[in-house]
Amino acid sequence: MVRRPRVVGSDRGGATICLLAVGLLFVVAGLFGAGVGAARMARQQARVAADFGALAGAGQALHDEPVACARAAELVAANGGRLVWCRLDGLDVLVSAEVIVDPLPGMTRTAKATSRAGPPRG
After folding, report:
1. Which residue range(s) make up the domain with 40?
2. Per residue in 27-67, pLDDT tens?
């Protein structure tokens, strides 16, 4: 069996290209996963902000709508959200909050949630 001497520079680099492609695939999958995770966290944060805002507003529902909604706006802002609208329905307070998130550079999304709080029925 005759062995040919290996010539330096004869490697064409096919494995390098495959390794780079796999690495790029992992980076894209990681960015997609981070974007989905950020959107889910923003949705949960909007729900929490709306729930706490509605509960705080319900505590002030005996006064009037501006007082109840002002208190709801304080709690929504304290939880990282923005009050979209607030309404007093009898002794129930309805609150809608939104949280703005940038899951990926150049991409801005808004997560919205609505909540209702008032005295127990029954």
Report:
1. 17-117
2. 999 998 988 899 999 999 999 999 999 999 999 989 999 99
